[in-house]
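Format notes (please read before filing issues)

Several people have asked whether sequences and structure tokens are stored in separate files. They are not. Every record keeps both together, in the order shown below: the sequence lines, then the token lines. Line labels are part of the format and must not be stripped during preprocessing.
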Amino acid sequence: MSLQWRLLFSGESDAYSNMAVDEAILKSYYDGLAHPTLRIYGWKPAGISLGYFQKMEEVIYPEKCLHAGVEFVRRITGGEAIFHTDTLTYSLVCSNKDLDLPPLIKDGYFKICQFLINFYKAMGAEAKFFVLQGKSDPKNKRSGFCFALNRDFDINISGKKIGGNAQRRFREVVFQHGSIPLRLDMLGIRQFFREDLNLVQDKTTSLEEICKGKVDFDQASKILAESFLKTFGVKLVSGRMTEAEERQAERLKRDKYSTDAWNYHKEYNP
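Then the structure lines:
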């Protein structure tokens, strides 16, 4: 297990920058140029991230998003679409050995997401994996909206799903990111999605709902980092991106994540 991790507080950025930075950090670690890294960030303006395998035209209304200034971007991870606004997001990159992760992806989710369980407890809420309450819904696989699905490794508070996570592995390297809604406005969100999300309102929750009041982004970010540190017993060293990572992120934003070829068709030729 690696005891030293780099901690990045990135603040709020646009959708294309966020995905570009995540991939730049992943590439840096994969090439042996960086410590395992935990990054914590937000989204501004509002954005939608789609899972790698999703078909844009089947999930959202791109023209409505463009008219409203809502950016949409394709992730390198699978899963379903997430609407990001007033959202606390993390990403991490490491090897299996850095966190002593089991070989199966599903088992890895349970181990990594334990720091999220501990984060919610630190925020005053009793969070559990859906499988522990017998409330996962393996039959509900057709929704294109992440918060409409309850899988074994998803997290709930009082039976309501909170947040969503996605993972991808490159040999021994693990990349995972996930989002925690500080607040949720389903009435505002559902106008951008093609499917009927009326029933999702009662199936999901946010930090402000469980904390019964406004949650500060910076304070929640620090608690999230502390929960990671306490869960895994690692040393988090505050740092910044290297110049090489920044250049890589700029290229990825320009040539990949802000292009229609990638976002509509998964096409990217570096």
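For reference, the curators noted about this record: The radius of gyration is 17 Å. DSSP finds ten helices and twelve strands in the chain.
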